[in-house]
Design a protein that fits this description.
alpha/beta, six-stranded mixed β-sheet, Rossmann fold
Amino acid sequence: MIRYFKENRIIIFITLILCITCAIASSFVAVFLQRILDAAVISDMNSFSRELLRAIAYLAVLITFSYLYSLLCKKSIYKLIKTMRKHLYNGVINHSIEGFQKRDMANYLSYFNNDIKIIEDNYLNAMFTILENIVLFLASLVIMIYYSPIIALFTGISIILMITIPSLAGIPLQKKQDNYSKELSLFTNKLKDMLMGFEVIKTYSIDAYSIKKFERSNTNLAKSKYKVDKLFALTEVISVVLSIILQIGVIVLSAYFVIKGKITVGTLLALTQLGASLANPLVLIFDNIPKMQSTKEILNKLNEIVAISDESNAKAYNLIEFEHSIELENISFGYGNQEILKGIDLKLTKGKKYAIVGTNGCGKSTLLKLIGGYFSTYEGKLLYDEKEIDSSNRSNIIKIASIIHQNIYLFNESIQDNICLHNEYSDEDLNLVLEKSELASILHKKDIALDYEVKENGLNLSGGQRQRIAIARALIQKKPLLIIDEGTSAIEQKASYDIEQNLLKDNTITLLTITHNLGENNLKNYDEIIVMNNGSIVEKGSYYELINSKGFFYNMTL
């Protein structure tokens, strides 16, 4: 949390000064009460009026400063939460694709909503409450010692009990709060899954099943929250009971000293007020300390993500280039115990066009992702211009390669924004990629302008339109390597062929594409066809070379 305080140190400092000022000033209300009551007891109207006016003026100033403190406290928390979300988002964005995909989307949403909310309620609000009441407690204790050291000693013994007993709940509360955070994440994950699968639920009439599944998840979440609240309730009751004992003890002792003539009636009132000013702050302090402790695991979890942003900013990248070739030497890769790629040896020369073909599940998409820098745990070597890819330069592949996947994602923005991604391009560049992607003709035919707003992930567009936008988005970047994983599969056959021919004629790009269209017209213009089976490259060559060899590829075309 220190980094967030440093970024907002000015407003935090002013807030703390006001916090201390208001807390100390609040404790002196007891002094005014003592003076007013003592004046009343001796029937001194002049003193009574004078002290009353002083008290009214004092309270007016105190109320003003208290309002300013309350306002700045909320402003400080707002800025701290805003800063936390900023750093959290930077940490998420600085993940590698491989690292990002290790967590489910619902987990990330839970971090930004549920976990940040817990930190706001149980850490930041609790922190200011604790600080304010510590100062109020100390100031009240000093005034009480001035009035009666004996009563202050009794108060100190009571305080020790109030500190010891509720603090025992801190560790179990932390564990239960961590479990609650996990249940929140699971609940968000399952809810997202069910809502995104709404169409499947309705189509296959599994409404009852989805309701039962939701109810189980909702019940688990509610039970987890109730366990936290039960422990909070226990600590609150203990604190309140001890607080009442303290206040009663102060009143009884003060009354005894009044009877003995050692203090005045006004001093009794002041000590009673100070007893409340000691007891109530302690209740709040020990209610909130366990809350702050309970957020430890959540803060650690978020700090791990934020640290990725720090590492990314501090890292001196070993820049890579693609002027000549990309080479894969004896590459093997798998998920867990499942081997996907086996002993891949491949060389891609800049400017050439490559088609990857093979049976479903043979590792074609995995190979493209590996070349695109998605993975770091493979065996073998991946080299760009004879420079090996490692943790220091893997992220730089994005400056070289544009990748189009089967599953296209479009933002809730205009078509032009989805193509340009808020970068500035000339009208000439934009029109050129519209032509190459065959998007211009389809927009004209459908009477759709570039400022047409895309709904959630392109729900108001066809699959072919979405793929055309993705192709235009990739081409306008003018990166030397274009990787396509069946990026035209949803486009009608003639338009798909025309787009492919446009890409094959483009001398500025190296094309690497997966295709299931094994026809001669589609493949004859590729420089090399890479044939895969069971995670290995079984053949390479031009279309006619592979047909004439009558090997694996030839049998695929039959």
